[in-house]
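Supplementary Methods, section 5.1.

A reviewer requested that the exact input to the structure prediction be made available. We therefore reproduce it here, unchanged from the version used in the analyses.
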Amino acid sequence: MRGRQHLPARRKQITQKVGIAGQRRLYVSVEDAAPPHELFLRIHGPNVSDEITALYDTIARIASLALQCGATVEEVGEMLHQSRFLPSGPVEGDERIKYCDSVVDYVGRYLLVYFGGREDLAHVTPPPQSA
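The structure derived from this sequence is encoded token-by-token as follows.
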């Protein structure tokens, strides 16, 4: 990996709000840039402790550092995708991803589908772009 790429102090970002298996609400925020270099995760729901909140923050910080040090969105997404643990199930609020095997699997799918071009991981194909 190369040295860390420092980001400007002011950046635009996209935030995706989803519900997972009716048990968790997740906010995924990434830079409005391709490829993104920063990821933020906020999780809410019953039985979400400070420890769980801190673990998701740590996942986001490590993923961001990897992206800023030269890892590709595909590499980071693949490391997160296919993580299997509860809660898992239907995803509400995302136009393209309708099921995940865990909250971490959703984050990996999100990065791969929206920024890595992995249409095979989307459950809904995007409408054709008009010219």
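The chain has a mean pLDDT of 92. These observations are discussed further in the main text.
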